[in-house]
Design a protein that fits this description.
This protein is of the alpha/beta class. It is about 25% helix and about 20% strand. Strands 3, 4, 5, 6 and 7 form a 5-stranded mixed sheet that branches. Helix 1 links the parallel strand 3 and strand 4. The longest helix has 13 residues.
């Protein structure tokens, strides 16, 4: 698969990034795992997520998508390297927003 540079990070990723905003409120863990499996099986390698995606949904407190993504990586230790692009905008942080890159390579 053709890849593209991810800014100035030194990483290259597939041209499609999976948006993790649906995990934990629009779709459940089982469906999330199936979608992530299919995504990675087709050679894609980047997931975008933020801790605020589902915080507004009744019964959620934020971080649901990250919890599901983390559980997915724990259960699928034979994955190739995947880039997770977290965006943290916690309700406790009022003056700054942080972003980063997490490289998951269980091998």
């Amino acid at each position: 698969m053709m890849t593209r540079p991810l800014g100035k990070t030194g990483f290259s990723i597939a041209p499609l990034v999976f948006g993790g905003n649906v995990f934990g409120w629009t779709i459940d863990e089982k469906t999330s795992f199936a979608l992530l499996d299919a995504f990675v099986d087709h050679g894609f390698d980047a997931i975008d997520t933020a801790d605020v995606y589902s915080r507004w949904a009744e019964g959620n407190q934020g971080g649901e998508s990250e919890t599901i993504i983390g559980a997915f990586f724990i259960l699928t230790l034979s994955l190739p390297t995947v880039i997770v692009r977290p965006f943290v905008a916690s309700r406790f942080v009022t003056t700054s927003i942080t972003a980063g890159i997490c490289v998951v390579n269980p091998n």
